[in-house]
Amino acid sequence: MRGLEYHLKTPVPEADIRKLKAGDVIYVSGTVITARDEAHSKALELHDRGERLPVDFRGVGVFHCGPIMRKKDKGWEVVAAGPTTSTRMEIFEDKFIEAFHPAVIIGKGGMGDRTSKACQKFGCVYAAFTGGAALLGAQGIKRVKDVYWLEELGMPECLWVYETQDFGPLIVTIDSHGSNLTADVGKKVNANRDRLVAEMK
Amino acid sequence: MLSKVIEDTAVELLRISATELPVEYVREMDRLMKKTKGATGRAQLKSILDNVSIARKNSWPMCQDTGVVAFMVKVGDKFPLRSELKEIFTKATRRATDEIPIRPNAVDMLRGNTNDNTGAFVPIINWELVPGNELEIIAMPKGGGSSNVANHRMLKPGLGMKGVKQFVIEAVAAAGSQGCPPYFVGVGIGGSEDLCMLLAKKALLKPFKVRNPDPKLAAIEEELLAKVNELGIGAMGLGEGPTALDLHIEMAARHPASLPVGIVIGCWALRHAKATIGPRGGVKIDKSA
Fold first, then answer.
1. pLDDT value at position A1?
2. Does the beta carbon of B260 lie under 8 angstroms from any beta carbon of chain A?
3. CATH number, span A5-199
């Protein structure tokens, strides 16, 4: 089920995102910004009030990640930065995609129908990074450009703005054409579960 | 000073557990990667193994989620320090947060992240009083992703062991792609609503691939491990490669009217390290699976 390999540069044009198919392997160079539960929620609140965000998500990577960071004399350095479970963000990812038009949502464990529909409508993909592979993740991050909301939200939840070089490998599991690999696997797993439970002695 | 030895040892155990995955798990994932047919599943296992090797080489945490800090402690009744231990583990947790470093993961719901991994009831310490003059400490920091897919049910006793086995299959299927598979599965049966969960968690710490001393439970462990793998969740839930690496059962007696079952799931990064400290401060560290 492995597809083609692409090296994307942010801001990624929508046409390039529309080319991607579930199963493709991608690497992202440019800007990747961490955002998880509280950052999503705060960003959408500000957006609803018509206020400007300190960052521009358009065309960049949004990373579901609460990293370990270390303060150095000249700013911050990444210690470990792997993906967190993305389904927690399913409750607002569609609104987030609609409001901010990111190119790639990066996380682990897959996402649901609402996110898939928003990806189709607004030209976005969801790509999975291997869960727990936090040091491989850190290797693709060349520089910490900025951090916002650190005091208010804390290290895992705030917005870290990373400059990346070939961040990946990421597997596209939700494309902009309606495919959702993790959901497909989930259906097979549920069928296997029903059979195993029925056959249990 | 003994208290300093304990504190240093606890910091070291947190460092080892966060940065060095037991080699037995690494070898097993390497073996299973070679057997995995799909390129996507193989790539996931390769990323895991590459990542684990970078962590070991540099003494960096293998995963950014270094968990809620938790210790399983056995205190010998003749060990010189007892009631002071909690404070020592708390200090060690604060130090480990800066020194390793590990992510500040203790959140006060009303006041925000405490930023030092300590807070009400945290670090979580499970105490056991045992005969002897030694102190055994196991550091077991566990990530939130796999903790979120733990499961608990009070079954009707009439469903019997068949009902327990069906619940295990359902619980792992429900965990699906969410908790970073390939998984370790701990099953706690009986006791009470709280004890079964603790037993399930302790089951994760039983020696890797060593079956239950009770031959009947050993057979159920074998059966369930095989069936859980038939679910086909695969590495990272992408449908290829192993779903679970091991499964252990811990069983207590139960109330005639209750059949409590707890299921605790470990991600592939099942992190733990053990030390035994003698009454004069001699330390033995055990990194085995």
1. 54
2. no
3. 3.20.130.10
